[in-house]
Amino acid sequence: MSVRTSRTRLITAAAGVALAALSMSACDDSGDIATATGPTLKAAASPTAAGAGTTAGAPAPAPAGGTPAPVPPSAAPKPAPATTAPATTAPATTAPAPATTAPPAVPKSPAPAPAAGKPGVCEGSTTKTVAAPLNRPVNHMLLTVTNTGSGTCYLYGYPAVRFGEAQAVPPVIEDSKPQAVVTLKPGESGYASVNLSSTDGGNGAHGHTVTSLAVSFHGPSGNESVGAAAHPALPAGGSYVDDSLKVTYWQQSMDDAVSW
Predict the structure, then answer these.
(1) Highest mean pLDDT: which of 26-35, 80-89, 110-119?
(2) Signed CA dihedral, 225, 207, 260, 128: sign only
(3) 10 Å Cβ neighbour count for 21?
(4) 3-class DSSP state of 8
(5) Quick one: pLDDT at residue 215?
(6) pLDDT, tens only, 126-172
(7) Percent helix, strand and coil across the chain, each rounded to 5?
(8) Which residue among 28, 41, 131, 213 sits deepest, i.e. has the most Cβ atoms within 10 Å of its Cβ?
(9) CB of 44 within 8 A of CB of 33?
(10) Which tens digits make up the pLDDT trace of 145-154?
(11) What is the mean pLDDT of the segment spanning 239-255?
(12) Which residues are bridge partners to 182 per DSSP?
């Protein structure tokens, strides 16, 4: 029994010496020491074994029958930095607005031209003439000329009247001449009176009845006839005239015309 005990102790001591030598060899070769989670037992990782069984940067395999040894921070593989692809933004594409062209302006129609006729002169085509007998004074007739044109016209001088087939016009009463030329705006009227025959029945000669009348208009000079003549109707049965026939100048008012 003593011999078996001595042999056992000798084997145990030899195993301890071998284990110590192995630990020192591992420290000299790698410098890396793995610490177990148990009591102060240290195991050395062989560089040869690590190189043969593991990939560079991978943790060392755990010793058989024990707890895996932790990997030191310096030996742990670092995760590759996350790479984010730069954001690409497609350029905004905006369809161009359709070209708009304003329609050409439509020209306005010109204003209607004024009525035909000699500008500034009242005459038959731009006026309306009415001949009406007067009760007072007796044997008198009133001529009324109304401007039917689109502009102002002027009555110059006095009316050149011809009753029936007369070759000459009767004279004018000079005292009836107004201070200014008679001016007629559109729609306005001018007047003149006609002394048809003598009132006493003794001063007139060659009296006769006429059924037609023509009224001509003078120009600025007062001597010539201008434009178209007017042909106002006479009363039914005609008008009686004699050699005392005469007319007044054109007047702006009716009262001035019948006062002669």
Answers:
(1) 80-89
(2) negative
(3) 10
(4) helix
(5) 97
(6) 999 999 999 888 999 999 999 999 999 999 999 999 999 998 999 99
(7) 20, 25, 55
(8) 213
(9) yes
(10) 999 999 999 9
(11) 96
(12) 155
What value does the mean pLDDT take over residues 89-109? 46
Say how far apart CA 182 and CA 163 lie, in whole Å. Answer: 24
Highest mean pLDDT among 8-12, 39-43, 174-178: 174-178
What does the alpha-carbon distance between residue 187 and residue 147 come to, in Å, rounded to a whole number?
A: 5
224 CB contacts (<8 Å, ≥6 apart)? 218
Residue 226, token pair as written in the block: 């201008």
Residue pair 129/145 in contact by the 8 Å Cβ criterion: yes
- Is the CA virtual torsion 33, 35, 39, 43 positive or negative? negative
Write phi, then psi, for 155 (nearest 5 degrees). Answer: -95, 105
* pTM assigned to the model: 0.55
Gap between the Cα atoms of 119 and 113, Å rounded: 12
Domain extents in the chain:
2-41, 120-258
